[in-house]
Amino acid sequence: MKRFQSILVYAGTAHRDSAVTRAAQLALENKASLTLIDVVKPMPTVLGLMTDVAKPEEIETLVAADRRRRLMEIASEISDIGLPIDVVVAVGDAATEITRQVLEAGHDLFVKNADSFSPTGRLFGSVGTSLLRICPCPVLLLKPEIHGEFDQVVAAIDVEACDGKHLDLNRKILDFAYSIAQQDKATLHIVAAWRLWMEDSMLHHAGADKVESMRREHASRVQKSLDELLQAPFSKADDVKVHLRQGSPAAVVRDVADEVEADLLVMGTVCRTGVAGLLIGNTAETVVSDINCSLLALKPDGFVSPVALSGSVSSKEDEPLPLI
């Protein structure tokens, strides 16, 4: 997957080894620079009022210095890759500070271990979910239990997309997923869902025969769109499987990922509603909460993060809406 120039990896988790190892491997394959980041949570105000040892900002500085020493030790352990390695420690909200680092340094990939399973069963915690909403570069969240290469890669595309931005995002998803599958010698599964708009309402008013005719016509259009999208190399590859199914996008993606025992799901996070299709609004939230594998999330071209370099959050009218 030779497409990255500057990779950022979060090395502040208890299970950081797999994320750092994967990021270092990608940096080596791409001849890219690698930056390790950790984020210190601000000291609670109430705790600052209770201590006579030092001011809160002094304690934060001491903690940040200790974290930096830790990152330097990790960097020295992987220095044999022979590529530039930098370390960054920030103080603040983790997702915001990581995004700000991406914006300031121009990183084109962020890597982090997903959280271990929580009592709610979610693999991706608050930091990872926030990054899916606000981080402008691709975000790779690795399931902690996965080590080594991926075997089954699933690419979720919006087969009903009709505008240029969403079609470009489909191509980006396929391109990234295919590159990863080729690099890891994995099987690539392309999954697409379709359904007839307001089918239940039309069934009530138009009757079963009319709706069935409309369903067949729509299915034919969807298949044609998919065939146009899946030209070479996808159309001639033996290690590419296509799963086109009728149903809810979130359910179809989840079912295929479970059936093929996916190691990685590559998907787009579309942050503006208004186009019927995959991974918009509640659908995206459902997919993220249900899957049990690593995730590579891509933003559409032109995405503008709500995080501002100055430290404030943008309030422009044209900023992307939240993922959910």
From TrEMBL:
Gene3D superfamilies: 3.40.50.12370. CDD domains: USP-like. Pfam families: Usp. Coiled coil: none annotated. It comes from the Bacteria. Keywords: Cytoplasm. Its main location: cytoplasm. It is found in: Cytoplasm. Residues 4-143, 170-298 form the UspA domain. PANTHER family: UNIVERSAL STRESS PROTEIN E. Required for resistance to DNA-damaging agents. This is Universal stress protein. It comes from Aporhodopirellula aestuarii.
